[in-house]
Write a structure and sequence with these properties.
The protein is mainly β. Helix content is 0%, strand content 39%. It has a single domain, classed as Trefoil (Acidic Fibroblast Growth Factor, subunit A), CATH 2.80.10.50. The chain has no helices and twelve strands. 39% of the residues are buried.
């Protein structure tokens, strides 16, 4: 993934667990929890990237136009990541820092400076996706794969 095709959907996979970023129980309401879950090719696990002013909104395919955001725009470590109505708030904006391999990346929240991560570096199905300070953990590394 050296460049993103912003017109097509991706699956986003945790490098740690091999599980996909997923909206819990395929909910579409603002505030729905984002989790990791084995990829099974449903729309609640598919995402598009929308660029604005050098930042990305990570938009849900199943709940569009909702995007990934930090619950209550929190600055706290381990604050849950949820889907939320797009407002342009900095807690909904992410920079994608590519690793040298050109495939894996870290997503850095504009507001908090914290990284998208799997809570407690868990391998558990349904573990929450959160923001957490950079610590070099594989739980903060992601692979985006273009879907057909």
């Amino acid at each position: 993934m050296t460049t993103l095709d912003t017109s097509k959907p991706y699956r986003i996979i945790s490098l740690l667990s091999g599980q996909a970023v997923d909206i819990d129980l395929n909910r579409t309401n603002a505030g729905a929890q984002v989790i990791q879950y084995p990829f099974h090719n449903l729309d609640n696990e598919k995402w598009t990237f929308v660029i604005q002013d050098g930042y990305f909104f990570i938009r849900s395919v199943s709940a569009a136009p909702k995007v990934l955001g930090v619950k209550a725009a929190s600055l706290a470590s381990n604050a849950d990541v949820v889907i939320t109505d797009i407002t342009g708030s900095p807690d909904q904006m992410w920079t994608l820092e590519m690793d040298g391999d050109g495939c894996t990346f870290a997503a850095v929240n504009k507001k908090s400076g914290k990284l998208l991560a799997v809570r407690d570096a868990s391998y558990d199905q349904s573990a929450h996706i959160v923001q957490y300070p950079r610590n070099g953990s594989m739980s903060q590394k992601w692979i985006a794969t273009l879907l057909p």
